[in-house]
Amino acid sequence: MNLQDSRRRGEEASGAGAAGGPAEAEGAGSAAAAGVACDVIALLEVLWERGRDAVSAAPVSTSQLRVMHILERDEGINLRTLGKVLGAAPPSVSRLCDRLEALGYVKRTASAVSRREVELRLTVPGRAYLRDLRARREEALVAAVATMSPGAREALVHGLGEFCSAVDAGLAGRAWPPQEEAPAEPAGRREQAARAARSA
After folding, report:
1. Cβ count near 156 (within 10 Å)
2. Is the terminal CB of the chain with fewer CB neighbours within 10 Å at N or C?
3. Compositionally biased, Basic and acidic residues: which spans (predicted)?
4. Angle in degrees, CA 78, 80, 81, rounded to 5
5. What is the distance between the alpha carbons of residues 81 and 132, in angstroms, rounded to a whole number?
6. Mind listing the pLDDT tens digit for each residue in 140-175?
7. Has this prediction a pTM greater than 0.70?
């Protein structure tokens, strides 16, 4: 399914939701937007694969690339913590790091805190790989965005900014989807409830 199909499906879902009332319309709109986002992600994955293959003669796998991004963000992370972030078993995490170490993208060093721990860090070639990969991805995205109208580009920036904020909120452990806060109870009512509880 292409984006035109997704957009048409979203419009149909939004129309059907609007006929059922505000709550149904909001739910249908969210589902339609999520569907389009999924299709965009699928297209980006194809684009990313092309860019990754062009960066190096020995491209890393998707799982290995995820490890590199984590190490870039959390330099010095140990294998146990990396496994928790990946949701993978220690043997699998160790094999991923072995492959990246063989490529020269990751190095293991003894922890200054505990001799039993090993810290993981990106090497200079590893950081260069990520830098080149991002540059190629950006080139592809710039070429695509350049074909859009100014209004569409502005809407894209705004929409993606809101989307990133929503995802960040979910990853940070806040309510996702966000829940409406209950209205504050009047002070007098709170005092009455407290007196009733003491007298019970």
Report:
1. 12
2. C
3. 1-12
4. 70
5. 27
6. 888 889 999 999 999 999 988 988 888 877 766 544
7. no
